[in-house]
Amino acid sequence: MENQSLDPRVNRLQLNPSGEAVTVQDGENWNVFEVFHQEKRGAHHEHVGCVHAPNAQMALIFAKEQFGRRKKCVNIWVVRSADILAFSAEDEDMFANNLEKTYRDASGFKVMEKINKYRKSTRHDEE
Amino acid sequence: MTKNNALIYMLTAMADDALILGHRNSEWTGLGPVMEEDIAFSSMAQDKIGHAWALYRIQQEDLGGGDPDQFAFLRNEKDYRCCHLVEQPNGEYDFSLMRHFLFDHAEAIRYEQLQQSSFAPLQPLARKLKGEIKYHTLHANAWITQLCRAGEESYARMQSALNACFPLALGLFEPGGEAEDLLVAEKVYPGEKALQQLWMDRIYAILSAAALNLPGEHAVQPAYGGRKGCHTVHLQPLLEEMGNVFRTDPAATW
Predict the structure, then answer these.
(1) Closest of B155, B152, B169, B141 to residue B212, by C-alpha
(2) What ipTM describes this predicted complex?
(3) Contact check, Cβ <8 Å, A61/B138
(4) CATH number, domain at A112?
(5) pTM of whole model > 0.90?
(6) Quick check: B199 and B109 in contact, CB under 8 A?
(7) How far is A67 from chain B (nearest CA, A)?
């Protein structure tokens, strides 16, 4: 069965019409790269999206125009998505009880309240 | 020939090259090989139109030239000073990429030299465009290198694109006669021959790393004539399309 797509890339894929497995040649498949941009020197790199590219160098070239051409940006990282190790979605339960463990939360130390109270009292004295 | 006229000659040639190639490259918008490249190539085409605008603007502000929009869109074909390289239809992506590679390295070299120009308005412009052109050449180098290592057919197409583009690209350095002599004497820039030599050295390093054979400078016939207003058949239809909207109401405010 001839593929009727108007997109020339579909025909370039050389899909096997009989439905048998296709051998993929080296370099034929592009990778997805995650892109991280840095807004100013010393700031964290933040994830902004991804690009499709044959290698890391081309990914960086593409990412620059994709994510660095409008807003302020001083540097970009690209990382092959396949190189990122992550938990699977079904392991989400490992994080389930976090919200109950507020004693681990540094915001539990209410020191600001005391400081503000002290400031208020000294300001009164000056007046 | 006055220095003013010589400067107008040089700036018009530079600006027309950037305008026409910017227009040509923008014809790829929506048709690029992959979305990422489509965006990058379109964005660089816009940069080129920006370079042209900046150069027309210098003519207006410092050399008594006219309004940049009118100058860009309403001249007759023979009053354009662009070289034949930029007029060529896009062809396939190999040709467009090779043209982009050869042109942007020439532009990079020219602006590097203009940072020390005795014509003051060119210095800040050359510094401002440095980073932008650096990305353009980085993009071009990456593609050339990548495609020359992507198998026999790809390599053969890049070599034939180079063979086709090279004589045309030599037209970027068409001798400028009296105007050029005056600009060199006035230390506005080092002259076409010197720029061509720097360019040859620069592109040779990248092309040889990609295993492409650069044709000999003297083995080919450089495509001269554009700087004198003699153009290929491809320019007139481009001008008609490019100025189509502008000519419907040249006095409109955009």
Answers:
(1) B155
(2) 0.83
(3) yes
(4) 3.10.20.520
(5) no
(6) yes
(7) 10
